[in-house]
TrEMBL record:
Gene3D superfamilies referenced in this protein's UniProt entry, alphabetically: YVTN repeat-like/Quinoprotein amine dehydrogenase
Signal peptide: none
Region entry Disordered, spans: 17-44
Protein name: Uncharacterized protein
Recorded superkingdom: Eukaryota
UniProt keyword Disulfide bond present: no
Pfam family, one: WD40
Amino acid sequence: MVCSANSPVLEPTLSTPLLSASASTSTSESDDSPVNSNRFNNPQVGNFRFQDPPNCEFYRSLAVLSGHVGSVSCLALCGEFILSASQGKDIIVWQQPDLRQFAKFGQGDGSVKALVTVGNKVFTAHQDSRIRVWKVSRSSENVFRLVGTMPTTKDYLGKFMKQSNYVQTRRNHRRLWIEHADSISCLAVYNGLIYSGSWDKTLKVWRVSDLKCLESIKAHDDAINGLVAHKGLVYSASADGKIKVWNKGVKGTHCLKGVLVGHKDVSLNSVIICEDERLTVYGGGSDGCVMGWEGGHEGKGDWELVCEVKAHNMAVLCLCVMGEFVCSGSANKSIGIWKREVGGGLLNVGIIIGHEGPVKCLQASSYNVGGGFLLYSGGLDKSLRVWWVPKNNSETKPEANPPLITEKKYMDFFN
């Protein structure tokens, strides 16, 4: 099943200004309190029409959100918001479910490669090899305020005097071991720690509470492209064709617990974790294949290859999971929808076509929308697109000729 969407089908006004002080219903709350969109005045939803593209039986395009000045490089959920970042250095906050621009920040701080959220903070990884920390603030129009960078100045001052803290990064070039020497491509967070993977082949461990770099691991033989942390284990996917599994040892340092080997001379660009009775690790490769391994529960046991599917005719650039579904984004501009089977296999249940460039990032929302879920996709065409994916294709079908959606009907659709 193919869904094509070559033109915007939902066109809300994307000119919502940054949150002003008057937008908050309570001015006495602390900056440290987490974001809750119910405390703000939601921008009004206008009138727009859902339109099913030709030959689309199940997958509905809800919106094409524009506003980025560069390719959309990464996405992250932050409570009731979806954050999208671009290679044009900007980060946009969109409000769910009305898909309105809520805030914009981060311009001028280097191309954004990855972002994660922890409490009321956003951590962004950049091409300039730094991690920036943003704090949610409702005291001014600058909703997301820059509060720090990693490594911190304190970390630098505590280490720059000792020669033993320097490592060789390139010929005739040395850096402190707390610094990345190339673009930071991915981030993961777990239990008070942030993990960063870089094109410099290293994996670094940071403490959220004080932003201190705790550890640097020479993890791979080539660039690290993807990271995920799950139940104390960290999985790193690399251009060297391997996914490595890391476990925190008794001394507090991480050690290698397993190696999942992909196809020879094929870069692994993304990694995700699915867990039912057994844990399954999926990796997306530059040859268009998605591979899956089972086993290694809590760092114990051997890993077994249980899935190997040709998902796309070009590189798989990103993966995401929502329940029993796995979604894959490709350089061929398409999104594959896969249903996980017993034993770890993947069954293709649909393909979504609509982006005008490679699909670089995917994020699924847990919002229950008419028997399905929302899928966000960011592409090199500078757009963020929103799709509705049914959870049961055999029972759930959209209307053939959907009516004009008013504000009330639109909000009812999401309730």
